[in-house]
Every structure is written in structure tokens, then in C-alpha cells.
Amino acid sequence: MSKKKILITGAAGFLGSHLCDRFINEGFEVHAMDNLITGDLKNIEHLFKLREFIFYEHDVSNFVHVPGHLDYILHFASPASPIDYLKIPIQTLKVGSLGTHNLLGLAKEKKARILVASTSEVYGDPHVHPQTEDYWGNVNPVGPRGVYDEAKRFQEAMTMAYHTYHKVETRIVRIFNTYGPRMRLNDGRVLPAFIGQALRGEDLTIFGDGSQTRSFCYVDDLVEGIYRLLMSDYAGPVNVGNPDEITIKEFAEEIIKLTGTKQKVIYKPLPVDDPTQRQPDIALAKKLLGWEPKVSRAEGLKITYEYFKSLPKESLYKKEHNKFERYIKK
Ligand code: UDP
Predict the structure, then answer these.
(1) How many angstroms separate the alpha carbon of residue 208 from the centre of ligand 1?
(2) pLDDT tens, 97-145?
(3) For a surface tag, which of 104, 148, 202, 227 has the fewest beta carbons within 10 Å of its beta carbon?
(4) For residues 124 and 135, what is the distance between their CA atoms, to the nearest angstrom?
(5) For 277-329, how does the pLDDT look when each residue is reduced to its tens digit (9 = 90+)?
(6) How confident is the model at residue 236 (pLDDT cuts 50, 70, 90)?
């Protein structure tokens, strides 16, 4: 029997690369696509030797072509950290809207099932806690996060429209904060920020008073949830995340303990529209997919810390690459 064929966009990114690994292990032929603006080939270089792994450097905001048939599409291409989408707001809007449109069109043409990566950001700064899928959110469309949040909300609307109008088989995962190996050290997210600071012997920067909460999911758990959702028959949005909620201040204390750093925490201004609380309600995922996270924060953080420690020392001091500028000039 010939292998099932899947297209994964954003394949060289943190989540995309773990998904490539998973689908290769499941016996799929993986067609990986990335424009490498925030992704890194290092995350997938171990797969290039495989015949069943094919890579395309391409920006999915432009027309997407893949030869032959396709069984599945995972659309994971997008900048996903606040720092990134502040630097490249228009690309962020385009990949969530035009990129999604192109991939839905491809799914329709190939009669492939498509799963799009949405986000807890569709809930904005939520007034319902924990967040259930039927909550519509509290998003500022013109704030700094609007470019990401609204692109993802548009993505969900477009995906549902292709489902109802064109009968495309669609899936929507709402991803909450996720961490693990291959996160970028300098992407501004809280976990690499704190671990990077600890490894460099710097103080840990807490934004605001640290009372805002997040709920962190280990990447292997997330990938399992996504795999099960793709194989399910449910077209509505499904939260996938770890409900174990913690304040950022407590999180900093955990990182200090884990790394044994002698540094202290310092406080910086809270970014505009930074959500005050976030915790997924995963009752739907449990019921539909029989899924819940298995990896505790203590275990997941240990693995992630080992990964960051194993990186060449100079990467700790490397400023973010200049790919953004190069890309924007194009
Ligand atoms: N944060 C922080 N210090 C940092 C980086 C982030 O206190 O050096 C805070 C940030 O303000 C937010 C939380 O940590 O409240 C999570 O931020 P992240 O960028 O990881 O993801 P978000 O969930 O905000 O998209």
C-alpha cells in the first residue's frame, strides 16, 4: 500500500518540526513547506536523508502547488510569538488569511483533509475562565496583538466557510502556550527568555507584576492531541493545551529552582493587551479524542532545559538573525 501523503506548512518551526517527526514515524510521506522567516532548517535537518521527506522553501501567502495527490494538510505556518508578529505584522496577517485561503483551496482541489493551527489568542484577554470553545473572546483588533489574533480569527471563519460551502474536511485546533526543545532562544517567549537569562547569568525579566497566568503544555502532548484531532471527524474548534495554570511569577521561581541560577527577578512594564489569565478547558478534547496531557511541567521543563543547555554557547548570545529585514525587502 502506498504511503499516505501529508503537507505540513511551517515545517521548520518549533511545532511544525515536531509534527514532521511524528508523521514520519507514523509512516507518512511528509511534504514540508517553510519560507524560513522564523523557522530554522536545523529543526528538520535530520529528516533530509529520508526518501519520504520532501522540503519546499516557499511562502504560502503565495499560490501553493504540490505535485500529485495529497491526503492531509497541516497549516502551521505563522509567526507565533508577540515579538515576531510585532516585527512582521503584515506577513503575519497575510499568512493567516491569504495563506489559509491558498491551503484551503489546495485541500479542496486535492480532496485532502486540512487541519489549521489556531490559537488561544482568539479568546484575547478572556472574560470567561477557563476558556471553553463556545466563548467568543475579547480581542482588540487594532492593538499590537490584533495582527495575529484577527488573522487567526479570520482563519477560523474561512476554514468553517470551506467546510460548510465546499464540504472540505476541516479541523481547527486552538493551541495554548506550548514549550519544548526547538523553541527559539530569542523569540521573546517567556520560557526561552527565562532559561536564556538563567544560562547567561542575567536577572529574569518579569513583565508587569507577574500575576498574569498561563498554562504550559509540553510539545509531545500537543502533537498527540493534534494527531488525534486530525484523525477525528469533528470540524469545530477544539482546545488543546495543558490546564495546569501558573502565574508568571511562580513560573520564574520554578525556572530559578530548575537552573540553580543565583540571579533574581526584575520587573519590566507589561506589554499592551497582555492577557491577564489563560487556561484551556479541555473537556471537549477529552470527550472527543480521549486526550489529555501526560507530561507534568516538572518533567517537561527538565527536558527543555537540557535541550537549551546542549546548544552551542554562542547561540545564547546571538542576536536574532536578520532574516526579517532580508525578507521584508523582497
Ligand atoms: N513574559 C515575562 N517576561 C519575559 C517574557 C514574557 O514576564 O521575558 C510574560 C508575558 O508578558 C506574558 C507571559 O510571560 O504575560 C507569556 O508570554 P509569551 O510571550 O511567552 O506568550 P503569550 O502567552 O503572551 O503569547
Answers:
(1) 10
(2) 999 999 999 999 999 999 999 999 999 999 999 999 999 999 999 999 9
(3) 202
(4) 11
(5) 999 999 999 999 999 999 999 999 999 999 999 999 999 888 765 566 655 55
(6) very high
Q: Give pTM, 2 decimals.
A: 0.96
Adjacent-strand bridge partners of 73: 7, 114
Domain 5-328 sits in which CATH superfamily?
NAD(P)-binding Rossmann-like Domain (3.40.50.720)
Q: Could you read off the pLDDT of 149-171 as tens digits, one per residue?
A: 999 999 999 999 999 999 999 99
Of 197, 199, 207, the residue with max ligand 1 atoms within 8 A of its CB, to mutate for a pocket test, comes to: 207
Q: Which of 123, 148, 179, 227 is catalytic?
A: 148
Active-site annotation holds for 234 = no
Q: How far is the CA of 205 from the centre of ligand 1 (A)?
A: 10
> Residue 35 pLDDT > 60, yes or no?
yes
- With a cut of 60, say whether residue 330 has pLDDT above it: no
Output the 3-class SS for the chain.
CCCCEEEEECCCCHHHHHHHHHHHHCCCEEEEEECCCCCCHHHCHHHCCCCCEEEEECCCCCCCCCCCCCCEEEECCCCCCHHHHHHCHHHHHHHHHHHHHHHHHHHHHHCCEEEEEEEHHHHECCCCCCECCCCCCECCCCCCCHHHHHHHHHHHHHHHHHHHHHCCCEEEEEECCEECCCCCCCCCCHHHHHHHHHHHCCCEEEECCCCCEEECEEHHHHHHHHHHHHHCCCCCEEEECCCCEEEHHHHHHHHHHHHCCCCCEEEECCCCCCCCCCCECCHHHHHHHCCCCCCCHHHHHHHHHHHHHHCCHHHHCCCCCCHHHHHHHC
Q: For ligand 1, pick from 78, 120, 187, 190 the residue to mutate: most ligand atoms within 8 Å of CB.
A: 190
